Amino acid sequence: MGDPSAYRSASLERWARAARGWETHREILQAAGQPVSAWLVDAIAPQPGHRVLELAAGPGDTGFLAAELILPGGTLISSDAVEEMVDVARTRATELGISNVEFRTIDAEWIDLPTAQLDGVLVRWGYMLLADPETALRETRRVLRPGGRVALAAWTYPADNPWAAIPSQELQAVSGVDAPDLDAPNAFALRDPARIRRLLEETGFTDIAVDQLDVVFRYDDLDAWWHAQLDISAGFFDSVRALSPAQRDDLRDAIDERFAPYVASDGTLALPGRTHVAAAGA
After folding, report:
1. C-alpha to C-alpha distance for 227 and 232, rounded to whole angstroms
2. What ranges do the domains of the chain cover?
3. Closest to 200 measured CA to CA, from 105, 133, 250, 101
4. pLDDT in tens, 82-118
């Protein structure tokens, strides 16, 4: 990771640029993540009157599932580290007619909320991307009331997730860059369920449960995947842009070849993935 401050600044800049892509491709992403969102919401046991926070909410759909369950009297705080993503969630809430929601720009490592004020916290695929997930979990524990619950998701091992592993591997092969440190902030930083459990224990959580779910990302064809990936991942976009035209062609050909087993006879693409889901009590 190098300098954590530099990583945080670069990460915020990338997410701000990717926000519109997440809005454009929200339906694909949420369709894949729906079973995960449902598991997380169920794990915090939302009740009428509860106050629930979603961190790293992106388009906000996971938290929006909880919003209807905490009526009457309950409030969802939909948050992200960049205002551009918060705007995407705000637009989505308006489309869905959800009114019991507050929108905030919140850094998960420094949650600007009072102590012991929340009944539940939702984080779908967020903690593993942070410079300091332990600090973020301590902050999460701080803002939860006694008996409140956190529910999180984090990707398992690269071999379980060709949707992410294959493009990364082929990009390394074409560009000659070194393989990333999987223990640094990245999609697979919390791939080991023992680390998730240990982090939750060390930050004061109890009644810890860790499970796994399978997901599938579906695209109309390989071109649709390619364009979506360039839109939703500013890091991938920057890496591809840095290649020569010939290298870009080689990268695309290599990815297409390795994705071929996931292409149906009608050309549609179904990329499998696997994620940890975990829940714990404050």
Report:
1. 9
2. 4-158+182-218+272-281
3. 133
4. 999 999 999 999 999 999 999 999 999 999 999 999 9
CATH of domain 4-158+182-218+272-281: 3.40.50.150
Q: How many beta carbons lie within 10 A of that of residue 241, not counting itself?
A: 9
Distance of CA 198 to the CA centre of its chain: 20
- Compute the distance between CA of residue 87 and CA of residue 104 in angstroms, rounded to an integer: 10
What tokens were used for 20? 């519109």
pLDDT in tens, 212-259: 999 999 999 999 999 999 999 999 999 999 999 999 999 999 999 999
Spatial CB neighbours of 35, under 8 Å, sequence gap ≥ 6:
213, 215
Is 137 in contact with 163 (CB distance < 8 Å)?
Answer: no
How far apart CA 112 and CA 8 sit, in angstroms, is 17
d(CA 107, CA 101): 18
- Three-state SS for the chain is CCCHHHHHHHHHHHHHHHHHHHHHCHHHHHHHHHHHHHHHHHHCCCCCCCEEEECCCCCCHHHHHHHHHHCCCCEEEEEECCHHHHHHHHHHHHHHCCCCEEEEECECCECCCCCCCEEEEEEECCHHHCCCHHHHHHHHHHHEEEEEEEEEEEECCHHHCHHHHHHHHHHHHHHCCCCCCCCCCCCCCCCCHHHHHHHHHHCCCEEEEEEEEEEEEEECCHHHHHHHHHHHCHHHHHHHHCCCHHHHHHHHHHHHHHHHHHECCCCCEEEEEEEEEEEEEC
Which residue matches tokens 């300091």?
A: 132
What pTM does this model have?
0.97
Angle in degrees, CA 139, 118, 36, rounded to 5: 80
Tokens of 206: 């109890």
